[in-house]
Amino acid sequence: MIRFEGVSKRYGEGAYAVENLDLEVDEGELCVLVGPSGGGKTTVLKMVNRLVEPSSGRVVVDGRDVAQTDPVELRRRTGYVIQQPGLFPHLKVADNVAAVPHLLGWDKLRTKARVTELLELVGLDPALYANRYPHELSGGQAQRVGVARALAGDPPVLLMDEPFGAVDPIARDHLQQEFLQLQERLHKTVIFVTHDVDEAVILGDRIAVLSEGGVLQQYDTPAEVLGRPATGFVADFVGADRGLRRLAVTPIELTDLFTPTVVHPRTSMAQARTEVDASEGRWAVVVDEDERLLGWVEPGRAEQGDGKDDDPVERHTRRMEAWVPLEASLKTAFAEMLQHDAGWVAVLDEDRYVGILTPDALHTALRRSVGGDPVLA
Predict the structure, then answer these.
(1) Are 159 and 80 within 8 A, CB to CB?
(2) Beta-bridge partners for 2
(3) pTM for this structure?
(4) If residue 162 lies in a helix (H) or strand (E), which one and from where to where?
(5) Which domains does the chain have, with CATH numbers?
(6) Which pLDDT tens digit goes with each residue over 294-349?
(7) Helix, strand, or coil here: 264?
């Protein structure tokens, strides 16, 4: 756990980089600091490992005041990743990752095993990358090495200062998703600085919005920050399109789903039509005996000459192009609808079909994410 207790950092008479900050980051939580330039984000980050000392207040990590902790010991227990990975250019990738284990006095076998483990963890094949030099890496690969190096000593705390800001948008998206997967496995306590609201929303368990001078405006979940901005500053900063951004942080839930008529491949078109008419619908979902999605059928078309009543449904089943996994966000579902120009999207729990998400249900789910009508202050 990391706590900022009334922390201020003055840099002139009456001028603050950070002013009276009270903030708590729980163990295993990913906290994102976001705000404009001059908002004190990097200063807050650097106070955790004593690269910057507060003018007043205190920073507590795992119950210990960092001011009472040896800075060298503190920094060895704190992973640090910056925008430019800052790899040692004269050292190979493996030696860069091994830098902290060497400082900690690990033996060669333990260090080599750790380097191999971490390169695999960040998606770099040790056989291909361990012996390369930093200049032989792409920007995204270098950032992966930077993350691996920060994790090498297995620190409980990870500080990240715009680590993906210098890579191209495609690589950035990949790095964000890979880091989320990594965090799910490692459960580090992370403070992550970014100026990008979308990145904050994607990554953060909680978001701290800082205004100029390091004043905390709001500290809450992404859904609450987007759906219920605490101040006019927060509302302006997260933008008028915050409703769309909420799609990315709102998961699909089973209660959001519509369940139309379900039929099986060998069902006759006549029987399918009877079942669809009884539900006052027009079409049915087709699944196999293991509830795997096969497609959809509109049995009423048999009356218009498109098939015979005794035809099996499988002869007239159309493929369901738009589908998403149950763990997807509403943003993913909405994008799938738009991509396929579809009025609904099927939802699968692994291979099993569980229901349909419609635009109306998507809107209802958005309202649910903030407990009712959003406050757009």
Answers:
(1) yes
(2) 25, 61
(3) 0.78
(4) none
(5) 2-249 (3.40.50.300), 254-368 (3.10.580.10)
(6) 999 988 765 545 557 788 999 899 988 899 999 888 888 998 999 888 888 999 99
(7) coil
